[in-house]
Amino acid sequence: MPENAEESAVPPEVDTSKAHSARIYDYYLGGKNNFAADREAAEKVIQIWPARTAAREGRKFLGRAVRYLAAEAGIRQFLDIGTGLPTANAVHEVAQAVTPSARVVYVDNDPLVLAHARALLTSSPEGRTAYIHADLRDPAGILADPVTQSVLDFGQPIALMLVAVAHFILDEDKPAELIATLVDALPSGSYVVASHITMEHNPAALAAAQRAYRAAGVSAQARDSGQFAELAFGGLELVPPGVVLVSEWRPDDNGPRPTPAEVSFYGGVGRKP
Ligand SMILES: C[S@@+](CC[C@H](N)C(=O)[O-])C[C@H]1O[C@@H](n2cnc3c(N)ncnc32)[C@H](O)[C@@H]1O
To answer: Which of 20, 79, 109, 177 for mutating ligand 1's site (highest number of atoms within 8 Å of CB)?
Structure first.
């Protein structure tokens, strides 16, 4: 088995000389699917903000939100945009542990995630998983893709997952319109799960982290809780406790939690009325 990404066959469309958000995040989470440019960018961020702690809390939030939707809200279909590289507790693993017939369409724009998509296509026999290589900035393309249309039933509630991805969409790309296009296509009773980086609790460090991302060629834009709530959950009913730090969203243990300045990462779940 190859020890790390350098020793595996890298598809030609993957530019390893440039940092990419999926691979930086993989590095934070202790994965091996990253390259020198990603590690260099990640280390610059880690020196100013404990991004590894935030990423771990972000993943735990994703797992709790999917479990809530599958176990308490009866959701069986998920459209997960900005899937990321394989790591523990993929959406289908968490959802199908509750509802084996759950269906998941994964979407990401990183060719390295595409190369690893096999790891996501391990559905239970009763359910289904599929992967499409597409960009959040093309919501109509995601919705019209034959894979999306064949795996998901748009007559039944769907959970749209936008976890740790909207902060890579700059205002000039009109993220509110992109998300509204996706939400408009979902039937009543559907949900949006989203998380987003913020500067509110640690302005100097997060501003420096944002500069480090941009210097590495990765678009990034932190937003405050009001901006995030409007962007991701405008017109939706927020599930309690609303928009909070990811570590505070229905925590499943009473253990010590990192400080708001360390987390600097909001999350929430909204229901389409
Ligand atoms: C920080 S990771 C989050 C992964 C996963 N959602 C999680 O929370 O663990 C962000 C992911 O979004 C993907 N991404 C960034 N911009 C995107 C875009 N415009 N369209 C689709 N995916 C995008 C990256 O390739 C990466 O896999």
So the answer is: 109
Given a contact cutoff of 8 angstroms between Cβ atoms, the answer to whether 29 and 52 are in contact is: yes
Q: What share of the chain is helix, strand, coil (3-state, %, to 5)?
A: 45, 15, 45
Is a pLDDT exceeding 50 seen at residue 142? yes
CA distance 51 to 45: 7
Whether the CB of 165 sits within 6 Å of ligand 1: yes
d(CA 254, CA 91): 24
Q: Rounded distance, CA 96 to CA 102, Å?
A: 6
Distance of CA 201 to the CA centre of its chain: 21
Say yes or no to pLDDT of 197 above 80.
yes
Report residue 38 CA to chain centroid gap.
18
Checking phi first, is residue 74 left (phi over 0); if not, alpha (psi -120 to 50) or beta?
left
Q: Which ligand 1 atom minimizes the distance to the CA of 161?
A: 6
Confidence grade of residue 120 (pLDDT, cut at 50, 70, 90): confident
* pTM of the complete model: 0.96
Q: Is 219 exposed, middle or buried (0-12, 13-18, 19+ CB in 10 A)?
A: middle
Q: State the burial class of residue 144 (Cβ atoms within 10 Å of its Cβ: 0-12, 13-18, 19+).
A: exposed
DSSP string, 155-209: TS--EEEETT-GGGS-GGG-HHHHHHHHHHTSPTT-EEEEEEE-STTSHHHHHHH
- Residue at token pair 């009866």: 74
Dihedral through CA 66, CA 35, CA 123, CA 272, nearest 10? 30
